[in-house]
Amino acid sequence: AEEKVSLSLAGYRAGKGDLMSVVSARREWVEARFKQIDAIEQRALTGAQLYFAYGEPANE
Question: Does pTM top 0.70 for this prediction?
């Protein structure tokens, strides 16, 4: 998604693309980032639930 934003912006700056393609690529990047943040949040919540349900793992 980041590469798509860069390529769209480069095309726009070179006069070969339009601003809407840059905005669209940026929107896709933002949505992908939100999905990544949601996945990180879910992993943290699951980790916290496991920790409070079972405690710390025993050292082996």
Answer: yes
